[in-house]
Amino acid sequence: MKIIEVTNFLEQYAPLEYQETYDNCGLNIGDANAEIKGVLITLDCIESVIDEAIATECNLIVAHHPIIFSGLKKINGKNYIERTVIKAIKNDIAIYAIHTNLDNVHNGVSAKIADQLGLENCKVLAPKNEVENSSVGSGILGTLKTPISSADFLKQLKSSMQTNCVRHTALVKDEIKTVAVCGGSGSFLLNNAIAAKADVFITADFKYHEFFDAENKIVIADIGHYESEQFTKDLIYDLLVKNFTKFAVRLSKVNTNPIKYL
């Protein structure tokens, strides 16, 4: 089986046209017509993940974040991006990125967070085109089966999302019922979450001054970028193992989170 058969399948699930204009989804490195030996799934593709692919005889890496995000003018190994690219090419390892296109499908990254939290009645928080296709867009809005106190919700959130830290605003809601989520950097959706009357907005990468924008209308819960997207690997894994049986599919064992907590 060829790499292109897998990438075509992934692009049927999360079409490349759904990616944001700044993004670089698709086959970043490698020959689409090469035969697949094995697939390794990771959130980030860095040097240690290439080493893991070599050790496990996987010649296709499916990553959420593109290793090549902006143009490379030189490839001489001066930084981790160039070293990763060089090592992948030397070892005939293809790298495929499924990033904001997977963010923008209804059963994508944010829906996986919703699953972890047990949300019901889920819909896209900010549809790209509400008239034509409300299943494409950013974030997910859902409800808890039973409302719980804000303090208890944050404790459950920390456990469910396996994070060491939840940065949050004042608990201006006595109970949490309606929940908005966005994997990765989602501060741009705060107004959408407020307009949707969400009690809490769960995402990552809020800057200090952006927390003030909650205006006591909502609870912002920043759980960390890696933490918010870590279960994306399981989403991709489940998609591939349910649809392909002719090669091994592995979850990377490398924790690529560059942020550590004391």
Please characterize this protein's 3D structure.
The chain is α/β, with parallel strands linked by helices and 262 residues long. The protein has 2 domains: 3-102, Udp-n-acetylmuramoylalanyl-d-glutamate--2,6- Diaminopimelate Ligase, Chain: A, domain 1; 104-226, NIF3 (NGG1p interacting factor 3)-like (Udp-n-acetylmuramoylalanyl-d-glutamate--2,6- Diaminopimelate Ligase, Chain: A, domain 1). It contains 9 helices and 11 strands. It has helices at 3-13, 47-55, 80-90, 100-103, 109-117, 150-160, 190-195, 225-229, 232-243, and strands spanning 26-29, 38-42, 60-63, 94-97, 120-129, 133-149, 167-168, 175-185, 200-204, 219-222, 248-251. The strands form 2 sheets. A 6-stranded mixed β-sheet has the order 5-6-8-9-10-7. Helix 7 links the parallel strand 8 and strand 9 (200-204). The longest helix has 12 residues, at 232-243. The mean pLDDT is 96.
